[in-house]
Amino acid sequence: MTASVLRSARLLKMTGVEVLVAVSIAVGVVGVVVPLLPGALLVWLAIVVWGITVGTATGWAVVAVATAVIAAGQVVKYTIPGRRLRADGVPNRSLVVGALVALVGFFVVPVVGMFIGFVLGVYASEVQRVGTRAAWPSTKAALRAVGVSTLLELTSTLLAAAVWIVGVTIT
Questions:
Q1: How far apart are CA 11 and CA 18, in angstroms?
Q2: Does 8 score more than 60 pLDDT?
Q3: How far from 55 is each of 13, 60, 136, 171, CA to CA, in Å?
């Protein structure tokens, strides 16, 4: 048998824990895009549970790599959009107002309220600071930042999931 056939056969013989972890990872990835659940945290916890269950050096190596990937993703998802917003001239005050309104939006409008709240908060702060016409470029920059942040977090969780799949395949 070829190596790919053996790997495919191994994936078909997943344990109950591995199936539960796979479902948790899938829900976590969806949670990154639809912020109902803390997606990256759920993916990381699922991989840690798998690592504890497996208890091998390979399992712990997968946990370590997934932890590094997700941690790096969490740092990058704030630093890159934040730098870009500052480069576009969006002041910290507008970002703080956006964050506060995003927090309110999270509870007022389920699923998308955080995104809407952030953008509305930045827009309201910028309207107050520079007027209606000049506020729109900052608001567009905030929209781009939300998208970039989501893509960066999604990338890190998908990479962690890929690391886990490799780990399941070789254990």
A1: 10
A2: no
A3: 18, 7, 53, 10
Give the Cα separation of 169 and 92 in Å (integer).
46
Question: DSSP letter at 15?
Answer: -
Are 88 and 138 in contact by the 8 Å Cβ rule? The answer is: yes
pLDDT band at 2 (very low <50, low <70, confident <90, very high): low
Hey, what are 103's tokens? 């927090």
Instruction: Name the nearest CA neighbour of 105 among 90, 123, 93, 87.
Output: 123
- 171 residue type, one letter: T
Residues written for the chain: 171
- 114 exposed, middle or buried (CB, 10 Å; 0-12, 13-18, 19+)? buried
For the chain, what percent of residues have pLDDT higher than 70?
92
> Where are the domains positioned within the chain?
3-170
The residues near 103 (Cβ < 8 Å, ≥ 6 apart) are: 114, 117
Q: Which two tokens stand for residue 54?
A: 């497996």
- Provide the whole-model pTM: 0.81
Largest CA distance in the chain: 69
Confidence (pLDDT) at 53: 95
Other residues' Cβ atoms within 10 Å of the Cβ of residue 53:
15
